[in-house]
Automatic annotation (TrEMBL), chain A:
It comes from Gadus morhua. Binds 4 [4Fe-4S] clusters per heterotetramer. Contains two stable clusters in the N-termini of NUBP1 and two labile, bridging clusters between subunits of the NUBP1-NUBP2 heterotetramer. Belongs to the Mrp/NBP35 ATP-binding proteins family. NUBP1/NBP35 subfamily. GO terms for molecular function: 4 iron, 4 sulfur cluster binding; ATP binding; ATP-dependent FeS chaperone activity; metal ion binding. Residues 38-209 form the AAA+ ATPase domain. Heterotetramer of 2 NUBP1 and 2 NUBP2 chains. ATP binds at G46, K47, G48, G49, V50, G51, K52, S53. Component of the cytosolic iron-sulfur (Fe/S) protein assembly (CIA) machinery. Required for maturation of extramitochondrial Fe-S proteins. The NUBP1-NUBP2 heterotetramer forms a Fe-S scaffold complex, mediating the de novo assembly of an Fe-S cluster and its transfer to target apoproteins. Implicated in the regulation of centrosome duplication. Negatively regulates cilium formation and structure. One of its GO terms (cellular component) is nucleus. This is NUBP iron-sulfur cluster assembly factor 1, cytosolic. It is found in: Cytoplasm; Nucleus.
Automatic annotation (TrEMBL), chain B:
Keywords: 4Fe-4S, ATP-binding, Cytoplasm, Iron, Iron-sulfur, Metal-binding, Nucleotide-binding. Component of the cytosolic iron-sulfur (Fe/S) protein assembly (CIA) machinery. Required for maturation of extramitochondrial Fe-S proteins. The NUBP1-NUBP2 heterotetramer forms a Fe-S scaffold complex, mediating the de novo assembly of an Fe-S cluster and its transfer to target apoproteins. Its cofactor is [4Fe-4S] cluster. GO terms for molecular function: 4 iron, 4 sulfur cluster binding; ATP binding; ATP-dependent FeS chaperone activity; metal ion binding. One of its GO terms (cellular component) is nucleus. Residues 1-23 are annotated as: Disordered. It comes from Gadus morhua (Atlantic cod). ATP binds at G66, K67, G68, G69, V70, G71, K72, S73. SMART domains: AAA. This is NUBP iron-sulfur cluster assembly factor 1, cytosolic. Heterotetramer of 2 NUBP1 and 2 NUBP2 chains. PANTHER family: CYTOSOLIC FE-S CLUSTER ASSEMBLY FACTOR NUBP1 (PTHR23264:SF35), NUCLEOTIDE-BINDING PROTEIN NBP35 YEAST -RELATED (PTHR23264). Binds 4 [4Fe-4S] clusters per heterotetramer. Contains two stable clusters in the N-termini of NUBP1 and two labile, bridging clusters between subunits of the NUBP1-NUBP2 heterotetramer.
Amino acid sequence: ICDVPDFSLRARPTGSLTHSLSVPPAIAEIAEKMLTVKHKILVLSGKGGVGKSTFSAHLAHALASDVSKEVAVLDVDICGPSIPRIMGLDGEQVHQSGSGWSPVYVEENLAVMSIGFLLSSPDDAVIWRGPKKNGMIKQFLRDVDWGDLDYLIVDTPPGTSDEHLSIVQYLSTAGIDGAVIITTPQEVSLQDVRKEIRFCQKVKLPIIGVVENMSGFVCPKCKNTSQIFPPTTGGAERMCEELGLRLLGKVPLDPRIGRSCDEGRSFLAEVPDSPAALAYSRIVKSIQEYCSNLLTEEQRLD
Amino acid sequence: MSDVPSNAPEHCPGTTSEKAGKGSACQGCPNQTLCASGATKAPDPAIAEIAEKMLTVKHKILVLSGKGGVGKSTFSAHLAHALASDVSKEVAVLDVDICGPSIPRIMGLDGEQVHQSGSGWSPVYVEENLAVMSIGFLLSSPDDAVIWRGPKKNGMIKQFLRDVDWGDLDYLIVDTPPGTSDEHLSIVQYLSTAGIDGAVIITTPQEVSLQDVRKEIRFCQKVKLPIIGVVENMSGFVCPKCKNTSQIFPPTTGGAERMCEELGLRLLGKVPLDPRIGRSCDEGRSFLAEVPDSPAALAYSRIVKSIQEYCSNLLTEEQRLD
């Protein structure tokens, strides 16, 4: 039961995009725009509240810590855009110029776009049905002046619906390097995450790997570890074994993560030696290696 | 409200939308003239049919949150268990989370299937007086993905309300996905004649959650849906070893308590984190029955009582006005 048309994501842009009659115009325009973006990464989960936006924001911070890299985050969660808050950009507004919409800059080499920047107040509700959300996503991809990017990270809402189909379809010619799937250890999460994995398989979106958040909590007082969200069916580890996916890492619960997100600061910078920050760093490294291997492979095939 | 004909183009706004016939997606559609004439904007007959069906349902409660993963389904399931513990009451849960239906798992009904009869679809029974309906029961496997755009999801929700043979119910609890989109608009619109007693809003303490939850509250205000109150989940964790309390999701801006003060809403209660909740949910058992003396279970019981009082006050008020 699926609304998915048969778009192949392995198509790479050529010089004759705009002459291709079979590609809808917006998709061709977006592919043109994306020629200056080296790597596109989707952050997905079937389940809500597992840490997608937290992960997207901190992946971006980590990649941008190399000041020679240009990084951007595109937040396509239209109803619940968390990225502005998490990246300390609440209240910022988007500006239009001749070359399109300007994203908001966290750092010189770190740009962000979110519907949050188009609201008068962060509490304003965006009560839109699917078609309107799709239109917004198309605009984000086509009309934002991203410039040259090494990495574009796309943060998504939970589910397998309009936003997910649209982002995959609009980027079908441009191509997506892969998806990072976020989960927490319990079966109620994994059940939804397996659906997201099925979605990726159906739309032929490669999966870079899986991140298990909220993976245990160490009491700051007595150092006892509690599994607050118990991995009753083996957690992400077993799911990855069963589905032949790579477990990129497990990140423990740490109250400082939630605090940093609320305060719009990177916890990688705030508590760089925490087990959570170290876990994130290893995960980011794996993603960087995946992306550069992909580039090497494409160059080898050319 | 988003009926999309089979010959409509992609991004059809729906024949009953304000944009029907006038949107950019409508150009070239064979139905464009008809839609633009306004002929398709008559009220959806399903709304009246659903109101008829709902005459045998005393109380309808929506469980909402702007934020994902805060415990809506957990709360819906356990509210249902608690209400159904009075065996003289008939209770049902309707799960309108089409993409991520958690209710079957949480209520121990994974793998169950729905049956059709002359009087419509039969829901699945957890107990004699506790029925459940979810798209989960229509899948061949719990891992099957439902990859649908809005209009198809809306159609499913309409069917759930119109075609399920609920029978006489004291309480119908509707579990929703996070957000303020198709599912939320549809459930409110399809029940607009039947009426909804109110919504319970679920959150966790941190500002990133509250920010989304305030949007949900705005949604309720916009559609004139009364808010019964707010539940704050994951409100602290007591280490089982040393009993030290940690605020794992710190209420940096005052948590649900301050939000409720600011918005004039009732804080129904705060439920602490407890690993036994997650375990019970995974195993499809009610933690209210498994660990009835836990702080979490006691918090839930008080919250349920408040909701029962709200509903019976509403009934008394309606009777007084008649």
